[in-house]
Design a protein that fits this description.
14% strand, TIM Barrel, 301 residues, alpha/beta
Amino acid sequence: MKESGPLRMSEIYQPGRFGLSIEIFPPKTPRGDESLHETLRRLAPFRPAFISCTYGAGGTTQGRTLDWCETIQQDLSIPATSHLTCVGANREELLQWLEQATARGVSSIMALRGDPPTGETEFKPAEGGLKYASELVSLIREVYPELSIGVAGYPEKHQECADAETDLANLKRKVECGADAVFTQLFYSNDCFLRFRDRYQAAGITAPLIPGIMPITEFARIKRITGMCGASFPRELASRLEDVQDDLEAQFEIGVAHAIAQCRELMDAGVPGLHLYVLNRPEACEKILDALGLTESVATE
């Protein structure tokens, strides 16, 4: 039986369901727009439970994010999740943005503190703004209780946090404030995720924990990303990629094969879903989902 209206995140990951989601970012050029339209056209047949859309540092593409959420929902009939951060906005501005988002049909939010603006090393809230993602979750839950809320989790801890236990306590606070599901930062060693899941469960956190997977399509780019976010990289995988550092096609094949193996192992370990960071390109995601057999029926029932 077809569901009426978009499922809440808490419903997407119920026992007996498997939630596939993908993440995109709003392009900055007309050519990028055309490319993303093609990416979404190619990935839509996999019928993800939702597509999430980020925005640029400091909120630089917030309006574009809502434009893309509206496009996704109207053109593809797939629910869209908009990112929202605390960066550069006070409480009233956050509420104004949420009013715009809900008026445009957005029913779920990825609530994040956000990174410091370019050139700054420390996060500083705007005057009258919020300092922590948990405060943003509380604000959304208080004013828009009907919205679904996702938050970020860090298998190897947030790079600004002093230790893993403090980081886990911060994550538990976000869930207690009203988050429906937790989506992890990228990782390339499943052992990191599985150890994190054990600690997560031991801490009494019950919200669904969804692994975030970013396929390696270009080693230099992934090295930059992992360097910025503090994620580790398996030595054997790095060695194989370094051996083909002048061959982008070989890097792509190694990266996709690693992602497929990661996802299979995670699915065998009983994860309730997968969140794919596709970097606005469809090729790797298509190969991974085809290999996993994640058709519409598998992903939603």
